[in-house]
Task: inverse folding
């Protein structure tokens, strides 16, 4: 078998152990003679898997019954619209603008014609850092994106506002421990396809009292309360995605949980940022205090060399290193499933490429 080293931004690497387990169970789930894709989402077998996955999420994030854990569809993108639709309460919704993904969320607030305010932004410097963010105590909610996938910036610690905090954690889901109480998190969500499985499932953790704000005019399928009341089974959920997500949760447990995963993630990030900082050939995009442990955006400051880097990396079985089209340059996405050894190989390649082209 020959597997490439996968530095793609999303969909992205899934742990090999997870893929192999899914493969082994693909036609015969737990010796029952059917695949998990082929049975009712309301049957015993799926129900058990589903509830186990929810329990694992609760355990990892240490959250109680005041939160609902939902597995939805429509991607993180649908959440941009669903959030104001459900939890805007007629006051002010505040947003921190740290890149394309928050811009898209802000656009949906605008379309819904709610009273929203952008209270912090790093747009004037092309989103190269996380600005200082302060939300009003009495805002309906304060909205952030914890990791900005394109620019490679990340909140090293989340804000702790008095108002409910809403977090788009699509690209750093399950990468570190988060204290929901300390940060007064009201809604925490992300698509699975960056750090937690295949595309098609969106994890939404929402405080039940926030979800209860929803107005009667909101269509039934777009209400969190509909899915809370039905334990995400108001309609057919993405059963295979939930299954894959559950296998990823097991894998994280085997690695020692979120704190162990975070330690490895810090080592991986230190390795590549040291590589960038120790040379004048490469330049990192994000300001040092805002650097992401998940996405590392950098460049040789020469578009042709960047292209050559991507091409030669591919020839050396490393994929996904082309920067996002908005930023250009290079990007290494080093999610949970990317190993320390993968990073060693990438850094060796970076040194060799610099030696030949520097
Ligand atoms: C990828 C991404 C999204 C969009 O996710 P979709 O599932 O494609 O809707 C939103 N926010 C962040 C931070 C992302 O990285």
Result:
């Amino acid at each position: 078998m020959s597997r490439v080293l996968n530095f793609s931004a999303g969909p992205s690497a899934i742990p090999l152990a997870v893929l192999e387990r899914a493969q082994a169970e693909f036609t015969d789930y737990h010796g029952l003679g059917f695949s998990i894709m082929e049975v009712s989402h309301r049957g015993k077998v799926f129900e058990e898997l589903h509830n186990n996955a929810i329990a694992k999420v609760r355990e990892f994030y240490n959250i109680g019954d005041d939160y609902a854990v939902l597995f939805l569809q429509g991607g993180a993108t649908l959440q941009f619209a669903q959030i104001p639709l459900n939890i805007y309460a007629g006051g002010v919704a505040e947003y921190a603008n740290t890149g394309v993904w928050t811009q898209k969320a802000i656009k949906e607030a605008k379309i819904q014609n709610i009273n929203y305010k952008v209270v912090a932004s790093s747009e004037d410097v092309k989103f190269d850092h996380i600005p200082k963010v302060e939300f009003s105590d009495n805002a309906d909610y304060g909205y952030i994106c914890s990791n900005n996938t394109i620019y490679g910036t990340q909140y090293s610690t989340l804000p702790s506002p008095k108002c409910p905090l809403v977090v788009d954690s699509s690209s750093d889901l399950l990468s570190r421990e988060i204290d929901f109480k300390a940060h007064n998190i009201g809604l925490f969500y992300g698509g699975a396809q960056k750090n937690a499985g295949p595309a098609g499932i969106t994890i939404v953790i929402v405080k039940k009292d926030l979800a209860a704000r929803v107005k009667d005019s909101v269509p039934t399928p777009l209400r969190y309360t509909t899915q809370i009341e039905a334990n995400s089974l108001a309609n057919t959920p993405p059963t295979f995605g939930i299954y894959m997500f559950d296998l990823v949760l097991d894998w994280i447990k085997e690695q020692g949980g979120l704190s162990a995963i975070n330690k490895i993630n810090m080592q991986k990030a230190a390795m590549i940022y040291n590589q960038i900082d120790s040379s004048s050939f490469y330049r990192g995009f994000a300001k040092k205090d805002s650097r992401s442990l998940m996405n590392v955006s950098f460049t040789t400051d020469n578009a042709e060399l960047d292209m050559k880097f991507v091409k030669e990396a591919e020839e050396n079985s490393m994929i996904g290193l082309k920067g996002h089209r908005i930023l250009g340059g290079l990007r290494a996405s080093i999610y949970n499933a990317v190993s320390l050894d993968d990073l060693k190989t990438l850094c060796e390649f970076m040194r060799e490429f610099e030696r030949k082209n520097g």
Observations:
- Residues 273 and 284 are 8 Å apart (CA to CA).
- The chain has a mean pLDDT of 97.
- The chain has two domains: 16-254, 257-357.
